[in-house]
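Chain A, query sequence.
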Amino acid sequence: MKTLRRALLPLAIFPLKNIAYAQKRDSIPLKVRAFIADKFPQNRDLYIDFSQTAPFQFSSKLDGKDLPENKMKSFQQLKAGTNIYFVKKRNWLLSTSLNYRFTSFNTQEPITDEANQKNNFHYHSEAVNFNYFSKLFNKTAIYTATASVDGSDQHFERIRGMVTASVVLKATPKVKMVVGLAGFIDPSSQVPILPIFTYENKFNNGWVLDILLPKKLLVRKDIFANGRISFGTEMDNSSFYLYKNNRTYEFRQLEINSGAIYEHHLGGNFIGALKTGIRAVPRARVFDKEESFKDYIFEASYKPSFYFNVGVSYNPFGKPRAK
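Chain A, predicted structure.
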């Protein structure tokens, strides 16, 4: 069990995967299409970013027993990914999402037999997404089905599935609103069904209220010639696998990042982003992969910490052009 103490990091799951929607001109009405293209593809066509947190204190339990108080000296993550569109038709879209994450951390007190050991973990996920557009009660409806796999640098581990159904309730130049449900085919998921609510309101003073629950709540405004600044809260997650005595364990964490975001068009289809603020982690757990998230063997509690994130994205496909 000592090796499992390498996982003394925040852990929780935010199972909602990123969903890509059609960008083809005739798929849905223009005012709805612009909204969907902007709100739902949370990942860019190509992206890479790096995150760093300041040192923070944490307490933890292993098999229900308290472990000594400890300090995270360093915690970094490197993420990269792409969304590729295979087939675009009038009413449906087939795409794939490929993601990689490298996590590295170091604690002040030894948590294994080797003092101050640095821990490095590789995680990847691959998904195939099918999106279908139709009408429901005379409103635009979007249905999605996603099949995904994930794993480490050693093995593929899990196969997951997700289905969603969303309805565009309103899509005007100032106000846009979508409601829906997401269902998860994954025994380790904390909840089988999750509501989706997306809302955007453009105020006359240039500020925009941007809500995508349960992922983010922001207010933003365009500044300078090619910049945009946002204030609010975003949710992200981390996950990787641990191996001990021929068994596989999974580590998950939910990150609530509150602060400021600045984005800037760098020229062409490149966009740079800088995020900074306070990161909070409500729950941290490690559990056997064959068990559920509730049947954990390790749980931790972490103090909020300062973080920053810098990234760049490239969007060769761009947004749909209005004609």
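Helices lie at 30-39. The mean pLDDT is 82.
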